[in-house]
Each structure stands twice: as C-alpha cells, then as structure tokens.
Amino acid sequence: MNMILPFMAVNTGIIIMIVVIVLLLAATIALAIWGKKLQKQQDESRQQLEAAKQSVKLLVIDKKRMKLKDAGLPQAVLDQTPKRFRNQKLPIVKAKVGPQITSLICDENIFDLIPVKKEVRASVSGLYILEVKGIRSSLEAKGKKLTFREKISAKAKSLSGQIASKSSDDKGKK
C-alpha cells in the first residue's frame, strides 16, 4: 500500500507531461523510420532513371509549373500516377524533340536553369528531364527576386558607399 501512495501523490500535470513526451518520442521514431524507407525508394528510382537516360537536343518552347492533368501528358502517365499527386503542380517543359513537340516533366533542381526559346542538350529518361547543358553558351540560374526590404537596404549601402567615396575625394583635393 505504501508503494502506491507516492505514485498517486504525483501531480496530474506531471503525468500528462510524461505521456505527451512519450507520444512525441514515439512519433519522432516512426517518422525517422518512414523517412529512411522513402529515401531508399527515392535512391532506387534515381538509379533506374540514371540507367535509362539519353542525351537529346531540345528546343525549349515554354516552361511552367502546372497540374499534371493540365500538362498535356499521355493518358498512361496520368493512370500510373497516384491520385494524391495528380493535383500537385509540377515543373513542365514544352519542347521540340526532333520533329515533334512534347511535354516533359523536369527535375525541380534544374527547372530555373532551362532557358525559354533556346536550344539545349538535355539528359532525358522517358518523359523526365534529369540534366540540362547549354549548347552555345553556359546556363545560369536567374537571380532570386529581392524583397522590398532587401532592395532598400542594398540601395542604402550603395548610397552610403558613394557618400564615403566623395568625402575621401574631397579630402584628397584640399
């Protein structure tokens, strides 16, 4: 009987806190295991894509982020895609490959590198663009858009630099 009494004397808030900590710990462990499983699947699919890639010249007509069902991809691609991903926006590139115009799905990492209305050499695996290289020039990503605050601070720095250089020029003239 003496053993049970100290446990009952513990505040209910502490018991609730212990239960919450145990649940959070269990959720963290479950997410770590699930993440490792997804990473393994992604690595396997990446290896399959790398094994089947081909180098192709593309004339990029247009590029957009759009829903899979609106992209103009073949019906077989839509049927194979899980339902939860059909409404997700993907980077889609319309390009002329040889004599025909096709819609291709692009890797998210290289979508910003692809120039519009230019010819590029791309590594393609099926309908998926893995890698892009410029034919006549190198490809560079466009700079990230600056926020209003960043623009103002950059302008202030440039103005303060001009003021400092003018004052040093004035001192040198005297």
Could you describe the 3D structure shown?
This protein is of the alpha+beta class. It folds into 2 domains: 4-47; 53-134, OB fold (Dihydrolipoamide Acetyltransferase, E2P). Helices cover 44% and strands 25% of the residues. It has 4 helices and 5 strands; from the N terminus they run H-H-E-H-E-E-E-E-H. Strands 1-2-3-5-4 form a 5-stranded mixed β-barrel. Strand 2 (89-97) and strand 3 form a beta hairpin. The longest helix has 40 residues, at 12-51. The radius of gyration is 28 Å and the shape is flat. The model has no long low-confidence stretch (mean pLDDT 84).
In terms of topology, how is this protein built?
Elements (H helix, E strand, L loop, with lengths): L3 H5 L3 H40 L2 E14 L7 H6 L8 E9 L2 E7 L12 E7 L2 E7 L13 H26 L1
Parallel strand pairs: 3-5
Antiparallel strand pairs: 1-2, 1-4, 2-3, 4-5
Q: Any descriptors?
A:
5-stranded mixed β-barrel; 174 residues; OB fold (Dihydrolipoamide Acetyltransferase, E2P); alpha+beta; 2 domains; 4 helices
How would you summarize this macromolecular structure in one to three sentences?
This protein has 174 residues and is an alpha+beta fold.
Number of domains: 2
Structural class label: alpha+beta
Strand content: 25-35%
User: Separation of termini?
Assistant: 96 Å
CATH topology of the largest domain: OB fold (Dihydrolipoamide Acetyltransferase, E2P)
What strand line-up does the widest sheet have? 1-2-3-5-4
Total beta strand runs: 5
- Percent in helix: 40-55%
Q: What's the CATH first level of the largest domain?
A: Mainly Beta
